[in-house]
Request: fold
Amino acid sequence: MSKNEIKDVLENQQPFDSARPFAKGVSTKKYIELYIKAQKSGYLANNNTIWLPGSRGEMLRQFSPDNLKPPHVSDIKKILNLKRIWIASYLCEPTSSKPANAFLYLCRDPEYDIKNLNKKSRNHIRKGMRHFRIRLCTWQEVIEKGYPADLDTRNRHNYVPHSQEEFAERIKSRQFNDIFEVWGAWDGENLAAWSLVCKIDNWANILTSCSRTVYLRYQPNIALRYCITKRMLVEEKRKMTYSGVSSIFEGKQLGLHRYKLSSGYEPVPARREFVMPTFFMPMIRSRTFSWCVEKVEGVFPFSPKVKKANGLLRLTSGREKNPLAWAQQKNDDDQMNG
Reply:
């Protein structure tokens, strides 16, 4: 790709050879209706929000990420009465008695542009644009070419890998052209990285990002994120782009945090709450039990279930006096200014 082509992409953000039109997005109400109909799961709350399955036994509240009002008590009771559901989790505003223990990653800059990022980020984006062709993908392309990136990503993070059939089914379940679109970083016929974007009302959510390990040195992820964010905020004039919540897995938070900040996202402090049936609450608030689970993780360091349990219990037991202290760690990269 020539320097002029890279410059044109960075300035105008028109994906090369788009294989399908951009998604227009739908209202929150329409999204909820379509999701429940397609997935045959989820719970519709009274206040136009949806609770969706998370990890096994968990329901997560989902709605516009800048709305952190607490859920209705009646909704939580109904969630915990659902079959095989033990945890209701949600995000809310932190208070003096319940301080922030997580970050929401949002970008709300209507003039989002590469020139506003630091020097290292600009270099990484340009490197990715030189090496890859960024464009929208068809669903069939992702089904046929996207599995290696999904497999590599889950292996890097010690998650249980999907089978190729499970992966194909997950992609097929997202084939709503008005809601979702998939962006890909292509190296010839190889899909080096891809991201699934969901458009609701006037905001967009980067739901999934996967990449092949062999391509990481060429920076496909940050190039993709930059192109997506610029398109959502500048071209489509959406209010914000959302990029998830900080991890509760100890030791994984800082890398993802720095990566998202390098893309121009702001970390918005929030309170992550986990509610379980009354008879479980003494256990999840027990510091002794939390300490025991931490020791179990030392024996099974690669078990995602044990790692999540350890992270959850460190938060709910109060053992973490400063749960966001990890974000204060600095290195030379963080000090690099553009």
Notes: The longest helix spans residues 220-235. The radius of gyration is 20 Å.
